[in-house]
Amino acid sequence: MKTYFLLITLFLTSSVMAQSLRDSLYSGKMKADTGKTVVSKDTGKYVPSKVYEIPATQAQIKNGEIIKPDESMPDSLNKNFYAKQKTWKRFIDINTGIISQQTDETKKVKKGGYSIEIEYEIGLNGRIKTTAITCDPPNEFLTEQVTELMKRAPVLFPPVYADGKPRTLNAKQAITIIKK
């Protein structure tokens, strides 16, 4: 009889304490712990990750030596290079608008569309060196304006390849100017 009385007392006490805990939680006296994460202890559903090795093809093996992959492309994780590419794009977009406005104001350019291709090289120090400017159809005024534009080009990071060394990069930029 005493054990029954003890069990009933424990049950009532725990329910009363739970009620007071709930009341204090919802009244604002306590804050809910929403940052707590629950980790499941059930490992029956856990699938370990597998590491797959790609076998070398016959084209990659030559005389028992594995040929390295092509390093002519920059490392895709080179954040500085790609961040500066956004700077380059912004530079070209802003200056294309300025050149378009200048062509609308001058009589040296006939009405129509002009395709300008700029060939440039990003050096090891990040400086841009213009190698060629072609305009189709040919126009001296536009070629001169683009030459002046390239004199104030931003400094870019040279691409860093898989071996960790920066190299020069030859690139092309196409610009389309339309005079109305």
Could you walk me through the main structural features you see in this protein, from its secondary elements to its overall organization?
The chain has 180 residues and is α+β, with helices and mostly antiparallel strands. The protein has a domain at 79-179: TolA/TonB C-terminal domain, CATH 3.30.2420. It has three helices and five strands. The chain has a three-stranded antiparallel β-sheet, covered by helices on one side. A two-stranded antiparallel ribbon has the order 1-2. It is elongated and about 110 Å long. The mean pLDDT is 75.
Task: Summarize this entry quickly.
The chain is an alpha+beta fold. Helices cover 36% and strands 19% of the residues.
The portion of residues forming beta strands comes to 15-25%
Mean pLDDT: 75
Number of helices: 3
Helix/sheet category: alpha+beta
- CATH architecture of one domain, please? 2-Layer Sandwich
The termini sit apart by: 103 Å
Enumerate the spans where pLDDT stays under 50 for 5 or more consecutive residues: none
Largest sheet features: 3 strands, antiparallel
**In order across it, which strands form the biggest sheet?**
4-3-5
- Rg, nearest Å: 34 Å
- CATH domain topology of one domain: TolA/TonB C-terminal domain
Name of the CATH first level of one domain: Alpha Beta
Find the count of extended strands (DSSP E, 2+ residues): 5
Order of helices and strands: HEEHEEHE
The percent range for helix content is 25-40%
Shape: elongated
Task: Give the arrangement of secondary structure elements.
Elements: H1 2-27, E1 61-62, E2 65-66, H2 79-105, E3 112-122, E4 128-136, H3 140-151, E5 169-179
Antiparallel strand pairs: 1-2, 3-4, 3-5
